[in-house]
Amino acid sequence: MLVARELTKEFQSGSHQLTVLRDVSFAIPQGAFVAIVGPSGSGKTTLLGLLAGLDTPSRGTVILDGVDLRSLTEDQRARLRGEKVGFIFQSFQLIPTLTALENVQVPLELRGESGAANRAVELLTRVGLRDRMDHFPSQLSGGEQQRVAIARAFSNRPRILFADEPTGNLDANTGARIVELIEELNRESGTSVVLVTHDLTLAGRAGRMIRLADGVVVEDRESGHPGDGKREAGSVNPREAHIAVEKRPEGSPLPASRFPLPGSEEVA
Fold first, then answer.
1. Residue spans per domain, the chain
2. For the segment 171-223, what is each residue's pLDDT rounded down to a tens digit?
3. Which CATH number fits domain 2-95+158-267: 3.40.47.10, 3.40.50.720, 3.40.50.300, 1.20.1260.10?
């Protein structure tokens, strides 16, 4: 579903060149639930923007559902996002002058879809907000606003969903419920989910964890689900993983990824 090949992102800061991401490579199959974790400044949000085609890399390639984003114009990338991509943001990004129903319905109408109102009602009911559809964002709690944002993100039946710190503005219990909801929709729709977070407890709910540090991938492994009692031999508890990364000798090679990149013929 998604392939990143040697992604590098550099910015010019005065006379200095700042490298935010360096040679990031991985592949994500359809239906996977992947968490990208790392401390602030590790390049998580920059990576998400590149994967979604919101920004272009200095070097490297992103292939989204078989399409090389380098071959597209900005308008073509926007059209691809509208057709295949959903977003959930930390700050919700709801339109304050529209009701919950309208926030979900308007994007559908702009895409020219028939039955937009019915689809919006269906999604808001699915996220438990049938009785709050006529409320404006200011009349909703943080958790309710994020549920509206989730309904909107799934409105176009996306092939892949990107979530940037979706629980960052929520308390722990509400955040856990939001992640459970994303999990349910992931299972039911088969949508691939790429979740960016600094919360290792929430990231542990994903089936796979990719860890960034200083703009490079330092770990890529199956994370397992809390409570399932499973852990790979030699794997690291999420709460201890940062220690293992910190102690890796500088310049030593990283272990080979358990998720190899497909060849060009496989992507095609």
1. 2-95+158-267
2. 888 777 788 888 887 888 888 999 998 888 888 888 999 999 999 999 999 87
3. 3.40.50.300
**Three-state secondary structure readout of the chain:** CEEEEEEEEEEEECCEEEEEEEEEEEEECCCCEEEEECCCCCCHHHHHHHHCCCCCCCEEEEEECCEEHHHCCHHHHHHHHHHHEEEEECCCCCCCCCCHHHHHHHHHHHCCCCCHHHHHHHHHHHCCCHHHCCCCHHHCCHHHHHHHHHHHHCCCCCCEEEEECCCCCCCHHHHHHHHHHHHHHHHHHCCEEEEEECCHHHHCCCCEEEEEECCEEEEEEECCCCCCCCCCCCCCCHHHHHHHHHCCCCCCCCCCCCCCCCCHHHHC
